[in-house]
Write a structure and sequence with these properties.
This protein has 463 residues and is of the alpha/beta class. It folds into three domains: 133 residues, no CATH class; 87 residues, Cobalamin-binding domain (Rossmann fold), CATH 3.40.50; 195 residues, no CATH class. Helices cover 49% and strands 12% of the residues. The strands form four sheets. The chain has a four-stranded parallel beta sheet with strand order 2-1-3-4, sandwiched between helices. The chain has a three-stranded antiparallel beta sheet with strand order 8-7-10. α7 packs across α8. The longest helix is centred in the middle third of the chain and has 37 residues. It is flat and about 85 Å long. The relative contact order is 0.06.
Length: 463
């Protein structure tokens, strides 16, 4: 019987995808003559015969691209949204590649036919995955439903692991330990082996406190002849900035306590989005930036660009660019401005800040002073959307939980800018940034960018 997440199922999925792509190409050629009556489509006498080589090349292109983005690794995309996002990205890349091949080889093929093929193929790939999910749901062939877990450790950390298993509907068939979880003595390695065999467990999860780690070797050794998966739940995630990951470092598997909040696909999509949209915005903004630079030079003199060290991704300092909106050497008045702030906590932007020049007040009001940050975006030190890059002095005062905002690149705009902007005190900004990180998607970025335009036009919270 074909099992979910097996190698055989991955091969089956590849075969089905290749079949869908080939059938979509054939179906597009079949349907194309029926579009001749549409006024914006060129008349093409039927029937349409495509070169046979395309029925081999197109499926191969899509399989290579889908495989390169790990689409066939089912455990990587357990959630529907994650799988559809990765599938859409892979489909776009493969479609562009296919269009390029047609351009350099069979340019006589109808563009309407190619668009039909894209529609049929995309719908077919999504439908195939939806049917697969529905089928395995009926069979209840999912890892959280077929696993029978024996949990070793019932202390404070073990209880947290147990609560997480219950939240994920993972079946626990046994618990070993007591509420105090002493380092050694509450149970022996042989007890774990016996319980694993009696409960017919598929997985043994060891969730012991740090003081009991030296006893893990004995437990693992006694399970060598028992057909179970052995997992060690690491309490180190309390030390992680955002999430914990195991990665290869110089050929040695190590724990990454500062693993990125975004996976590889999300990071690729976000960076590609930043480059494409950033270049388009740069083309439009360059003439305006030239006029603003000239105005700053004439009214306020040099320097035109204000450079300041800010905290970027992982807290690394970088130089952020803005048009100068304050009097020269305004940083000397930073401490006085903070003392006269509107809140007891740090608010380093004030409505009545005497350091802001008349032209600078207009630039701040319209957010035009931040246009030079497009250069930061193209350099990769910033993103179009993300947490605002923080002042280094304020970062030194951060609580550990606040440093989670450094797990993604800082942005020109972000969630708190479109929900409160400068009207909100600084200590509330981090909560908004963490909301953005935990709910990130490229669609959220697009939504924030659109809302930013309206917030700037209204002028709410901008000074």
């Amino acid at each position: 019987m074909l099992r979910r997440f097996s190698i055989d199922f991955a091969i089956f999925s590849m075969f089905m995808d290749a079949l869908i792509v080939g059938l979509s190409l054939w179906l597009a050629a079949l349907v194309r003559p029926y579009l001749n009556g549409w006024w914006f489509i060129q008349h093409l006498p039927g029937p349409v015969h495509l070169p046979s080589v395309l029925y081999f090349v197109f499926p191969l292109i899509y399989l290579v691209v889908l495989a390169s983005l790990a689409i066939y690794d089912g455990r990587r995309y357990l959630r529907v949204a994650d799988e559809l996002t990765a599938l859409t990205l892979a489909f776009i890349i493969a479609s562009v590649s296919s269009a390029g091949i047609l351009y350099f080889s069979f340019r006589q093929i109808s563009r309407a036919l190619f668009l039909l093929f894209l529609v049929f193929a995309y719908v077919g790939l999504i439908a195939q995955r939806s049917l697969v999910r529905f089928f395995f749901r009926l069979r209840r062939d999912w890892p959280d439903q077929e696993r029978r877990v024996l949990l070793v450790g019932t202390g404070a950390f073990g209880q947290r692991v147990r609560a997480q298993f219950q939240a994920e509907n993972i079946r626990l068939v046994g618990l070993i330990g007591d509420e105090d979880d002493p380092p050694a003595g509450a149970f022996e390695a042989e007890d774990v082996r016996r319980a694993a065999m009696e409960t017919d467990a598929t997985d043994v999860v060891i969730a012991l406190p740090y003081s009991a780690y030296q006893h893990m070797a004995a437990i693992v050794n006694r399970l060598e002849d028992v057909p179970v998966h052995v997992w060690v739940a690491l309490g180190f995630f309390d030390l992680a900035l955002y999430q914990l990951a195991v990665d290869d470092f110089a050929g040695i598997p190590m724990l990454d306590l500062r693993a990125a909040a975004l996976n590889d696909v999300q990071r690729l999509v976000k960076r590609a989005f930043d480059i494409v949209v950033g270049l388009l915005l740069m083309i439009v903004a360059l003439p305006l930036m030239g006029l603003i630079a000239l105005a700053v030079l004439l009214f306020d003199g040099r320097p035109v660009i204000f450079r300041q060290e800010r905290a970027g991704e992982n807290g690394r300092p970088f130089t952020m660019y803005k048009f100068r909106t304050m009097v020269k050497e305004s940083d000397r008045g930073q401490e006085q401005a903070e003392k006269a702030g509107e809140r007891e906590r740090h608010v380093y932007k004030r409505r009545d800040d005497p350091r802001v020049t008349p032209l600078g007040r207009f630039l701040r009001r319209t957010s035009l002073d931040e246009l030079p940050q497009l250069f930061n975006v193209l350099k990769g030190t910033m993103s179009l959307v993300g947490p605002r890059p923080e002042l280094l002095d304020l970062v030194k005062q951060y609580q550990p939980w606040q440093r989670q905002r450094f797990t993604v690149p800082p942005g020109m705009t972000g969630w708190w800018q479109v929900t409160g902007r400068s009207d909100k005190p600084m200590y509330l900004h981090t909560e908004d940034d963490l909301y953005y990180i935990r709910n990130y998607s490229i669609w959220l970025d697009i939504q924030i960018l659109i809302r930013t335009v309206w917030v700037v036009l209204i002028g709410r919270g901008s000074y």
